[in-house]
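Moderator note: this is an archived Q&A kept for reference. The question asked for a predicted structure of one protein chain; the sequence and the answer are reproduced below.
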Amino acid sequence: MSRSDGASEGCDAHGARDRDKPLYMISVAAELTGMHPQTLRVYEQKGLVTPGRSRGNTRLYSQADVDRLNLISKLTDEGINLAGVVRIMDMRERAREKDEEIDRLHARVRELEDEIHEYHMREKITALARYDGQSPEQVMRGLLGNGSNDPAE
Protein backbone atom coordinates (compact mmCIF):
# COMPACT_ATOMS: atom_id res chain seq x y z
CA MET A 1 0.00 0.00 0.00
CA SER A 2 1.32 3.45 -0.82
CA ARG A 3 2.51 5.75 1.90
CA SER A 4 0.71 8.83 0.60
CA ASP A 5 -2.65 9.62 2.13
CA GLY A 6 -3.57 12.61 0.00
CA ALA A 7 -2.69 15.09 2.75
CA SER A 8 0.23 16.31 0.66
CA GLU A 9 -1.97 17.35 -2.26
CA GLY A 10 -0.88 20.68 -3.61
CA CYS A 11 2.71 20.27 -2.37
CA ASP A 12 5.50 20.67 -4.86
CA ALA A 13 7.89 17.79 -5.42
CA HIS A 14 10.37 19.14 -2.85
CA GLY A 15 7.63 19.49 -0.20
CA ALA A 16 6.38 15.98 -0.94
CA ARG A 17 9.91 14.60 -0.50
CA ASP A 18 10.21 16.36 2.86
CA ARG A 19 6.90 14.88 4.01
CA ASP A 20 8.05 11.38 3.06
CA LYS A 21 11.46 11.61 4.76
CA PRO A 22 11.63 9.08 7.62
CA LEU A 23 12.41 11.08 10.76
CA TYR A 24 10.53 9.91 13.83
CA MET A 25 11.27 6.83 15.89
CA ILE A 26 8.23 4.81 16.93
CA SER A 27 8.10 6.45 20.39
CA VAL A 28 7.98 9.94 18.84
CA ALA A 29 5.38 8.90 16.24
CA ALA A 30 3.29 7.37 19.02
CA GLU A 31 3.53 10.60 21.00
CA LEU A 32 2.61 12.73 17.97
CA THR A 33 -0.44 10.61 17.20
CA GLY A 34 -1.52 9.85 20.75
CA MET A 35 -1.30 6.13 20.04
CA HIS A 36 0.52 3.33 21.79
CA PRO A 37 3.64 2.06 19.97
CA GLN A 38 2.09 -1.41 19.82
CA THR A 39 -0.87 0.08 17.93
CA LEU A 40 1.57 1.46 15.35
CA ARG A 41 3.12 -1.99 14.99
CA VAL A 42 -0.33 -3.52 14.44
CA TYR A 43 -1.15 -0.88 11.82
CA GLU A 44 2.13 -1.67 10.06
CA GLN A 45 1.31 -5.40 10.17
CA LYS A 46 -2.12 -4.69 8.63
CA GLY A 47 -0.47 -2.65 5.85
CA LEU A 48 -2.03 0.64 6.95
CA VAL A 49 1.33 2.35 7.33
CA THR A 50 4.79 1.50 6.05
CA PRO A 51 7.49 3.24 8.06
CA GLY A 52 11.01 3.45 6.77
CA ARG A 53 13.83 1.61 8.47
CA SER A 54 17.18 2.81 9.76
CA ARG A 55 20.39 0.87 9.14
CA GLY A 56 19.79 -0.76 12.51
CA ASN A 57 16.26 -1.77 11.38
CA THR A 58 14.56 0.78 13.67
CA ARG A 59 11.17 1.98 12.43
CA LEU A 60 11.29 5.58 11.24
CA TYR A 61 8.05 7.43 10.52
CA SER A 62 7.73 10.38 8.16
CA GLN A 63 5.36 13.33 8.52
CA ALA A 64 3.19 11.70 5.84
CA ASP A 65 3.08 8.54 8.00
CA VAL A 66 2.07 10.59 11.05
CA ASP A 67 -0.67 12.33 9.05
CA ARG A 68 -1.87 8.95 7.79
CA LEU A 69 -1.92 7.58 11.35
CA ASN A 70 -3.94 10.58 12.49
CA LEU A 71 -6.47 9.92 9.73
CA ILE A 72 -6.64 6.24 10.73
CA SER A 73 -7.23 7.33 14.34
CA LYS A 74 -10.03 9.66 13.25
CA LEU A 75 -11.69 6.90 11.24
CA THR A 76 -11.48 4.35 14.04
CA ASP A 77 -12.78 6.96 16.51
CA GLU A 78 -15.82 7.27 14.22
CA GLY A 79 -16.46 3.55 14.68
CA ILE A 80 -14.90 2.19 11.50
CA ASN A 81 -13.08 -1.11 12.06
CA LEU A 82 -9.60 -1.77 10.67
CA ALA A 83 -10.92 -3.73 7.69
CA GLY A 84 -13.03 -0.71 6.77
CA VAL A 85 -10.07 1.61 7.30
CA VAL A 86 -7.97 -0.54 4.95
CA ARG A 87 -10.68 -0.29 2.27
CA ILE A 88 -11.06 3.46 2.75
CA MET A 89 -7.33 4.05 2.53
CA ASP A 90 -7.11 1.90 -0.59
CA MET A 91 -9.97 3.81 -2.22
CA ARG A 92 -8.32 7.13 -1.31
CA GLU A 93 -5.08 5.99 -2.93
CA ARG A 94 -6.86 4.82 -6.08
CA ALA A 95 -8.78 8.11 -6.26
CA ARG A 96 -5.51 10.04 -5.86
CA GLU A 97 -3.93 8.00 -8.66
CA LYS A 98 -6.94 8.63 -10.90
CA ASP A 99 -6.76 12.38 -10.15
CA GLU A 100 -3.08 12.38 -11.13
CA GLU A 101 -3.91 10.50 -14.33
CA ILE A 102 -6.68 12.98 -15.13
CA ASP A 103 -4.28 15.87 -14.56
CA ARG A 104 -1.74 14.25 -16.92
CA LEU A 105 -4.44 13.68 -19.54
CA HIS A 106 -5.70 17.27 -19.26
CA ALA A 107 -2.14 18.53 -19.79
CA ARG A 108 -1.78 16.30 -22.85
CA VAL A 109 -5.12 17.49 -24.26
CA ARG A 110 -3.94 21.10 -23.86
CA GLU A 111 -0.70 20.24 -25.69
CA LEU A 112 -2.64 18.61 -28.52
CA GLU A 113 -5.06 21.55 -28.72
CA ASP A 114 -2.08 23.89 -29.07
CA GLU A 115 -0.61 21.71 -31.82
CA ILE A 116 -3.94 21.59 -33.66
CA HIS A 117 -4.32 25.37 -33.34
CA GLU A 118 -0.83 25.87 -34.75
CA TYR A 119 -1.59 23.45 -37.58
CA HIS A 120 -4.82 25.27 -38.47
CA MET A 121 -3.07 28.64 -38.39
CA ARG A 122 -0.38 27.33 -40.72
CA GLU A 123 -3.06 25.99 -43.06
CA LYS A 124 -4.84 29.35 -43.13
CA ILE A 125 -1.65 31.30 -43.68
CA THR A 126 -0.34 29.03 -46.41
CA ALA A 127 -3.76 29.05 -48.11
CA LEU A 128 -3.52 32.84 -48.33
CA ALA A 129 0.13 32.98 -49.36
CA ARG A 130 1.45 32.68 -52.87
CA TYR A 131 3.55 29.61 -53.42
CA ASP A 132 5.52 30.52 -56.53
CA GLY A 133 6.91 26.99 -56.57
CA GLN A 134 7.89 26.98 -52.91
CA SER A 135 6.99 24.37 -50.35
CA PRO A 136 4.54 25.35 -47.57
CA GLU A 137 7.45 25.32 -45.12
CA GLN A 138 9.41 27.78 -47.24
CA VAL A 139 6.36 30.04 -47.51
CA MET A 140 5.90 29.93 -43.73
CA ARG A 141 9.56 30.78 -43.13
CA GLY A 142 9.27 33.67 -45.54
CA LEU A 143 6.09 34.96 -43.94
CA LEU A 144 7.49 34.68 -40.44
CA GLY A 145 10.82 36.21 -41.38
CA ASN A 146 12.71 33.02 -40.53
CA GLY A 147 14.23 32.56 -43.90
CA SER A 148 14.46 33.77 -47.43
CA ASN A 149 11.61 33.57 -49.93
CA ASP A 150 14.15 32.35 -52.44
CA PRO A 151 12.71 29.15 -54.04
CA ALA A 152 16.27 27.93 -54.56
CA GLU A 153 16.62 27.22 -50.84
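Archived answer notes: Confidence is low (pLDDT under 50) at residues 1-11.
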